[in-house]
Amino acid sequence: MTSTGFTESMGWRHPYNYHDLTSCMELMNIEFGRSVHVDAFKVGLNDDRFIGSSLIALYFKFGSIKDAERAFIEIIDKDVVAYTAMVTGYAEFTDFNARGAFEIVTFMHREGLNANRVTLVSLLQAAGHLREFGKGRSVHCYALRRLIGVSDEVLLTSLVDMYAKCGAISIAASVLRQTKKRTVASWNALIARLSQLGQSSEALKYFCLMKQGNNLFPDSVTLANVLSACSNRNLVQHTTSLHAYIMRRNIQLDEVLTTTLIELYSKCYKMKRARILFDHLICRDTIVYNVMISGYLHNGLVEEAINIFSDMIREAARPNFATVVSLLSAFADVGDARIGRWVHGIVFRYGLELDLDVSNLIMHMYAKCGQIKNVKMIFDLITDKDLVSWTVMMMGYVNIGLADEATAMFQKMQRTGEEPDSSVIVTLLQAHAQLGSSEPVKEIHGYIYRTCLVEDIATMNSLIITYAKCGRIDVAEAVFNGMTGRELASWNTMIAAYGIHGYCTQVLEMFSQMQRENLKPDVLTFSSVLSACSHAGLVEEGWHIFSSMNSDYLVAPQEEHYNCMVDLLGRAGQLEEAYNLVKCSPLRDRASAMRTLLAACKVHKNTKLGELIGQELLDLEPQVSGSYKIQK
Fold this sequence. Notes:
Elements: H1 3-10, H2 18-26, H3 30-42, H4 49-61, H5 65-74, H6 80-91, H7 95-110, H8 117-130, H9 133-145, H10 153-165, H11 169-178, H12 184-196, H13 200-212, H14 220-232, H15 239-248, H16 255-267, H17 271-280, H18 286-298, H19 302-314, H20 321-334, H21 337-349, H22 356-368, H23 372-381, H24 387-399, H25 403-415, H26 422-435, H27 438-450, H28 457-469, H29 473-482, H30 488-500, H31 504-516, H32 523-536, H33 539-553, H34 559-571, H35 575-584, H36 591-603, H37 607-620, H38 625-631
């Protein structure tokens, strides 16, 4: 049927057909709606407020704002319904259009028309979208003055949602408490916003209050928001109890709930439960595959992550940028270029290499694996290189000791007109630290001050350690002393710089000064300090600092700290003490410390203890038994 035939069959001038017209128009596509609009114009009904309001709603439904505005302008005798149709439409779009909702209401008031309940609900939606507390509060006051919807569930839910989105959590909670007949939607509005703001404990509190209400039970939306809150603050200990509640209440585990539960179980190292949930999903999309892959990688289960990725490819779930980021980052960390190349092939198959960020990430993976030819190949294929591309290329050369190539790449970048940022400068400094000449470093130093990179802590820390490695500890000291915003990392860098030159006295003085300035040392601080004590043979000081880690600073000694102590005691000939320290340590992998101690036994010709340690190393690392037999 043509639009003209339709209009004739509906009987345009019969007032009782307006409702039928509205119902029919809501089922049509926008082109048919425009045809009806044209027919209405032909018969002189385009200015009819009922038809106009229906057209406005239709146009907004399909996102055609200009058509909606045209239909509104054509209405001669505009009423509250027509104005409200515009307000409702504007409220659901962008910030600019949401502001238009309030402008329309201003015109409506000038015409002597008052907003109704539907108008106010839409205005509250617009205020929440804009995060405009003042506008939302004005709407609330208007409703109270005119006694509009004081007990209306939809309006009160909109108030809670608006205040929560504007960050006025206390007012949102107050409105909710004062509501006699609370709805699941009103509770969800508050809990959702608390979760988004990271106020996880509050979200859980209101969830518990909601459960205490009479004849009101959380739904899947509630649970999704509460689970999200647990994820925000890593309150993963609540995962099991929330999962149990879902099962008790027979709440359907939809894709959103299941995916969130999988993510939380992954964070609390319960991958078996996560896998059970995953296996029960009938339809698995890219998002849930990404969550499983990230979960396995978070738990150090790289092989399982690869298997899930293989399943993903077999089931034709298209990998995206997030998939690639998780996998390539993991393979870069473990230095597995073989698996990285396999992922690279899949990236190429799906055309993801066209994304510059993905190309940079693949370069980074190859660079961490020392595959400089592959890094260069991808780098040359990138047409629109950004600073990340240049930085990764330089870093690849630095990682394998080709500092000259890294500096040459920097000069090539400069010729393209690219201005280096802090990441480029840090990588360039690492290259010059390998070369050992302080003269080029002085030029970089000048550039840092000219471009205000002096405010960047990471850049200044790199400058300190580079001067130290180039033999200019005096300049490194001057840079450190001239820094205005020194952080813990800066102190650690200066301590490490002194350690490079064997200045143990200065290391211990810096360590004491840190404490006087109420800076709490971390694992890196203790590694540098204990290493300095080891090289200087300061057994008593080393023991004191090592013992104070847990008791005074709540820093649990790690493998490198035990290795430093074993080296310190071994150099001093206190082999039995070193052996007892290793045997009493909570270390899972004692092989490194044992190897250090075995070398000390050889130096001090302690054959008996050396044979004992050699046998223990044979048990720990049978694959390298030959070297230990020789040392015995």
